Amino acid sequence: MTPLPLVDIGINLAHDSFDADRDAVLARARRAGLVHLIVTGSSRASSVAAAALAARQPALLSATAGVHPHHALELEDGDLAGLRALLAEPQVVAVGECGLDYCRDYSPRDAQRRAFERQVELAIDCGKPLFLHQRDAHADFLAVLTACGAQLPRAVAHCFTGTPAEAEAYLALGLSIGITGWICDERRGQHLLEVVRRIPAGRLMLETDGPYLLPRTLRPKPATRRNEPLYLAEICRVVAAARGEAPLELARATSLAAARLFGLSLPEVMQ
Questions:
Q1: Could you tell me the pLDDT band of residue 154, with boundaries at 50, 70 and 90?
Q2: How far is CA 231 from CA 9, 37, 47, 106, 168, in A?
Q3: Strand partners, 132
Q4: Which architecture, in CATH terms, is 7-266?
Q5: Environment class of 76 (CB within 10 Å of its CB; exposed 0-12, middle 13-18, buried 19+)
Q6: Are 177 and 167 spatial neighbours (Cβ–Cβ below 8 Å)?
Q7: Is 205 helix (H, G, I), strand (E, B) or coil?
Q8: Closest CA to 239 of 179, 170, 191
Q9: Nearest-5° angle of CA 69, CA 127, CA 254?
Q10: If we measure between CA atoms, which residue out of 163, 114, 118, 121 comes closest to residue 138?
């Protein structure tokens, strides 16, 4: 398969499923053509780990720092100060993963909203973009972002799985949209084939969200269910087919869009 110059905007590389072979995972990603990966922080501890990973390989890796809504109750004043300190580091390029998740409600909804609002304020203060999460909470999620008015930071709706109407609402606010292997799932992701046709080229980004969401269209089927950046090319292929574009064309467009949003320095081949 021809290597594709891709940016994976969301990979949980600090997850313990990568502990045994993290360097090999990155080597496979490079051979597949990936030019940059953004390591997701979803709690205080994972944000520290993501920043440390990115600091060791800044040409290839960046990181986010934030608290996922599942961990909203953990966001104390000290944690917020710790996130602010992480965001001052050059390899940490966004606030998040933050937002609302009413699908599982692992944290009370009022705590989720408070944590989300505080992280939006943090992004405004730090001048960093937002890496956003939303599940079954569209109305409240949109309300928090709309309340920012002209102060709304640059942002991407990570791992978008919603309806065309939700995508249109986010695009109208100026958000970008991240697409994962969910689009490769014939059981629940077919509606995304229509959604991706509506996203302007400069606002569409790709991500694995590994180790989760292994693309079900992969052939031959991998030996394990762990997703990794190597498989971002399959997501690119499926999205490109839905949009009627060549995979190489889509890879370049989504990578350049990610570079603009997150302030990434990509290899000269991408310029």
A1: very high
A2: 13, 13, 24, 29, 27
A3: 98, 157
A4: Alpha-Beta Barrel (3.20)
A5: exposed
A6: yes
A7: strand
A8: 179
A9: 75
A10: 163
Closest CA to 29 of 38, 19, 20, 41: 38
| Nearest-angstrom CA–CA distance, 81 and 110 | 21
Nearest to 207 by CA among 34, 54, 51: 34
Specify the pTM. 0.97
Proportion of the chain above pLDDT 70, given as a percent: 98
User: What span, in angstroms and rounded, lies between the C-alpha atoms of 96 and 85?
Assistant: 14
Q: What are the structural domain ranges in the chain?
A: 7-266
Contacts of 191 (CB under 8 A, 6+ apart): 163, 164
Summary mean pLDDT of the chain? 96
Distances, alpha carbon 251 to alpha carbons 86, 95, 117, 183, 202, in Å: 30, 24, 33, 16, 12
Q: Is 244 exposed, middle or buried (0-12, 13-18, 19+ CB in 10 A)?
A: exposed
Kindly report the three-state secondary structure assignment for every residue of 132-191.
EEEECCHHHHHHHHHCCHHHCCCEEECCCCCCHHHHHHHHHHCCEEEECHHHHCCCCCCC
The pLDDT tens digits of the residues spanning 1-44 come to: 689 999 999 999 999 999 999 999 999 999 999 999 999 999 99
194: tokens are 């229509």
CA torsion through residues 43, 10, 102, 130, sign:
positive
Residue range 59-80, pLDDT digits in tens = 999 999 999 999 999 898 888 9
CB-based contact 48:245 (threshold 8 Å): no
